[in-house]
Amino acid sequence: MNIPREPATPARWCAMALEAPGRPLQQVWREGLPQPAAGQVRIAVAVCGVCRTDLHVVDGELPFPGHAVVPGHEIVGRIGAIGAGVTGLRIGERVGVPWLGWTCGQCEHCRAGRENLCTEARYTGWQIDGGYGEQVLADARYVLRLPPAYSDEQAAPLLCAGLIGWRAYAMAGPAVRRLGLYGFGAAAHLVAQVARARGVEVYAFTRGGDSAAQELALGLGAKWCGASDQAPPLALDAALIFAPVGALVPLALRAVRPGGTVVCAGIHMSDIPSFPYAWLWGERRIVSVANLTRADGEAFMRVAQEIPLQVVTQPYALAQANQALDDLRAGCMRGAAVLRI
């Protein structure tokens, strides 16, 4: 087997870095390809999705890590170098890098198969440099193989929008027949297709007057679309909230039947306003999704292989990363934004 050799001279490569919260990303040039340590791989990035969690990092809604960081955790690329001790991966192989980038493996959560709750966990594009750049280092244990049927651009949103949507959907329970989705963006447009493939009725809630999102939802099989403050025509079994708006929680509670579940799927949300206990009574539940596990990733990639998902993307060049974030912040995004590296 011919293994590609390292360049004869040090390579120069570009990334978009966050130097302080609330500031625009800065284009930086780095000399020399990063060398993977033991257990790591170096990946030449092809595409990186732009996720709302990136906004939470850039806007300072998540604590700044104390050093400049390259955002991005929906990374698709090819392995360019492999560190000592890594097995099962090969040079040139296409892989994906998700949000969860490292865990301790020793705490009670890790030992119980709930590594998404590891208190020592480190996250791609937050504490660890992510995919808004031409090269990235990743812990080999946390890279994922991607379904071959999807292009690089289509595969990128699967790595967070898809994964978080999948985990949120699973937390709603197996008996769901009518599912509400609040915020019809990157995650909702994927999980809606999974739900429809399983015979579940989908009810989509968007910002008032967001005809583009409602058109997308109906085109992907939603039974009903309306503004977030509207009541659905029938009581829901569960509601998944992807918009980071705490005021949606009481609205979703009122939309679900007794025994129904409201799943808050974001890592950050504005404060939830007070509401009458009667809206929660009847064994309704409010639960949150925290990150993901490798098992989630492997399970969802199998689902994505079985169900031909229509992944709607809006592409930007790497140098347009700030524009992509601004468009996402403003809510003028159809589907998922991706950076072509």
Give an overview of the whole structure:
The protein has 341 residues and is α/β, with parallel strands linked by helices. 24% of the residues lie in helices and 26% in strands. The chain has helices at 52-58, 108-111, 152-155, 161-171, 186-197, 211-219, 248-255, 277-280, 294-306, 321-330, and strands spanning 12-17, 26-31, 40-50, 75-82, 94-97, 100-102, 122-123, 135-139, 178-182, 201-206, 224-227, 236-241, 256-264, 285-288, 313-317, 336-340. The strands form four sheets. Strands 3, 4, 5, 8, 15 and 16 form a six-stranded mixed beta sheet that branches. It has a six-stranded parallel beta sheet with strand order 11-10-9-12-13-14, with helices on both faces. Strands 1-2 form a two-stranded antiparallel sheet. α7 (248-255) links the parallel β12 and β13. The longest helix is centred in the last third of the chain and has 13 residues, at 294-306. The two termini are 28 Å apart. Residues 1-9 have low confidence and may be disordered.
